[in-house]
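worker-03 picked up job from queue 'complexes'. Input manifest follows; two sequence lines, order preserved.
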Amino acid sequence: MKPSEETLMAYVDGELDAAARARVAGAIAADPEVAQRVAAHEALRGRLRATFDAVLEEPVPPHLVALVQARAKEPARGQLLQFPTKRTPQRAWLQWSSLAASFVLGALMWQFGSRLFAPGPLSESHGEFVASGALARALSGQLSAQQNPSDTVQIGLSFRSRRGDFCRAFHLQGSLATAGLACHDHEVWKVQVLAHDEVSQVATGQYRQAASSLPPTLLGAINEMIAGDPLDAAAEGQARAGGWQGKP
Amino acid sequence: MPPISEALSVQIVELLPRLRRFARTLAGNPSDADDLVQICIERALTRSEQLRSDAPLAGWMFGILRNAWIDEARARARRTRVFAPEELGEHVADPAGAHAEILPVQQAMQRLPDEQREVIGLVLVEGLSYSEAAQITGVPVGTVTSRLARGREALQAILRDGEQEQA
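worker-03 finished. Artifact:
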């Protein structure tokens, strides 16, 4: 007796128990017509998989990853150094008083002074940190969709903050991997947050999504500041064309 | 909204490629599909306390994504009723010959009725069992198998016709 069409589909879908599977296998061996019908079902399944499995190879859009990660609890790993804006220099430096923070800052200043970062990506101005050199150039000119993985500065998300200005997350590659967030204000990029990025050190050489490789603590800061969604490629291009001028 | 655990956020991020694939089987258009994934994430995060720690995350999120798509499809149906003449005209005027080269399988999927497309996506593409697909779509297993059978038949016919027209 020939197996029903429904049984053949269940066979291809892996829904049959061992006994029923053996009966279908017998029918396939005995009857070329059954074998042909099973082959047609398998071919369709294979064609569907071949078509849609291509999606698995695509990079996941960073805004989807950021949406999930921004809601995660603050993890223990990673250090978040928050630069308070519009504060007196003394109070800003108080934020740096913990040993860990001093270590990271010291290491950064050492690295920034080295040949990797001439003339240095950070400068201090009236108690605030301002991007300079390669970091400033990347923040103003680099589009996240068109960057070379070998660039020293990698731009992650760009977004508009609740204050109306444009902000961009960035990575500094090097021996001390660092991630940060800078907002465009009065023609300069003010660095709001800088975090020691252990994640990207571990993942050196591996391809990672721009947003997924941001330390979760930094994503938490972005989540607090962001108004609406991150900019897509087109909006990012427009913002650059407009000189990153936010709302007055 | 309460924060989610680091472990759950990692699991959801790992699931994103599959959620995007499932959304693509439903929506066809990549940007609509990613919009569905975004709605799915937002809804899942709001309801994360509904997720039992022993429940499979994938099935739960596929169900949320599927329901988001149904909501979108209903909204679209309302719009289509208003703009019916042009929109229908565009679909009919799209000759198989002109776009036959562009991923005929995706196009064929889009021509299936919603109820068949979702079970094809869940079982044939995502590899879920009939009972998981039944749970997600809220119908008995028997209904899943009959929709699968009709969907397969329709897909084969659409693909065969497309190939004949090309030949």
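worker-03 released lock.
Strands of chain A lie at 79-82, 122-125, 128-131, 153-160, 166-172, 178-185, 188-196.
Residues 5-55 of chain A form one domain.
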